[in-house]
Design goal:
By secondary structure, the protein is α/β, with parallel strands linked by helices. Helix content is about 45%, strand content about 15%. The chain contains 13 helices and 10 strands. It is globular.
Length: about 300
């Protein structure tokens, strides 16, 4: 039996939060449905942040009440603080994620708190989620390089990851927020965490800003990681990080994993329709490195006569 790799689709949250066009709740639900139609079963739905700060995420509570296949799909939400946690819990979220930036300046610029303050808040939220029976997830952002402080020491990221596990995190997501990682740096960071990776407790979030996202996925696979974030068509990036455009495209990730013999449960050709649909919804040109090739294969499959 093929080894399973989880593809966690973050387009509905990370992809949309930086877009100029704000989608309605109905349009966001439509987006999620086309992703599910392609076989995706792990989705970051949205975030419970102030609509004044991120208007694209307004109505996430309403969205959670309408999600399809609720018992079959692993839906998650991002939470910035205790208030966001309470809102997510009230909306029925069963998996919540915090973001802990690995540098002082990024925390100050992003949420106006020091690194130590952010660690304390995230640790509290991880413990509360664990106590309440929710899945607790912690992103360690700018894990390789910070747009304000430069290279991030791997030992700091490892220490922060272990701190989140101690606080109750079920999973830590190593996030290359500005797409500055390279395969060597990925291996050096992940190998000391390999015991967590092989237990399914480490995930990775890569941006393709410099075109190395898939190479970094390969290095992560070699270090035992079996879960990755991606965004349909490469949609999005962090609005609080200069130069963070370019999420890893879901279709690129799925095509590579499927080609390598991993089981994702996702039809890479069906993702062509999803990319086109989300492109129409967002008025944003989309498509990863493999998209034109996938389009040709998709067209050829449609032209095959059926008995």
């Amino acid at each position: 039996m093929a080894e399973r790799v989880i593809v966690n689709e973050v387009g509905p949250r990370d992809g949309l939060q930086s877009q100029g066009k704000t989608l309605s709740v109905a349009q966001r639900l439509e987006m999620i449905q086309v992703l599910l139609d392609a076989g995706i079963r792990s989705v970051e739905v949205g975030s419970f942040v102030s609509p004044k700060a991120v208007p694209q995420m307004a109505g996430t509570d309403e969205l959670f009440g309408q999600l399809p296949l609720a018992d079959e799909v692993a839906y998650s939400a991002l939470i910035p603080n205790v208030k966001g946690y309470e809102l997510a819990k009230a909306a029925g979220a069963r998996s919540v994620a915090v973001v802990l930036s690995a540098t002082e300046t990024m925390n100050q610029r992003n949420i106006r708190m020091s690194l130590e303050q952010t660690i304390a808040v995230c640790a509290e939220l991880m413990q509360r989620a664990r106590d309440d029976g929710l899945e607790a997830r912690a992103y360690v952002a700018v894990a390789f390089e910070c747009p304000f402080e430069g290279l991030t020491p791997a030992r700091r990221v490892i220490a922060l990851s272990e701190r989140m596990f101690e606080a109750g995190a079920d999973k830590v997501i190593i996030a290359d927020t500005i797409g500055a990682a390279n395969p060597r740096a990925v291996r050096e960071l992940l190998m000391p965490l390999q015991s967590y990776s092989t237990a399914g407790r480490i995930s990775c979030h890569f941006h393709d800003t410099r075109g190395m996202a898939l190479a970094n996925v390969l290095a992560s696979l070699e270090a035992g990681v079996r879960e990755f974030d991606s965004s349909i068509g490469g949609l999005g990036g962090c609005p609080f990080s200069p130069g963070a455009t370019g999420n890893l495209a879901t279709e690129d990730l799925v095509l590579m994993l499927n080609s390598m013999g991993f089981a994702t449960g996702i039809d890479s050709l069906a993702l062509v329709d999803a990319v086109k649909h989300v492109e129409t919804l967002t008025d944003t040109p989309l498509g990863g490195h493999s998209f034109r090739w996938l389009q040709r294969q998709h067209q050829a499959r449609q032209e095959v006569p059926h008995a």
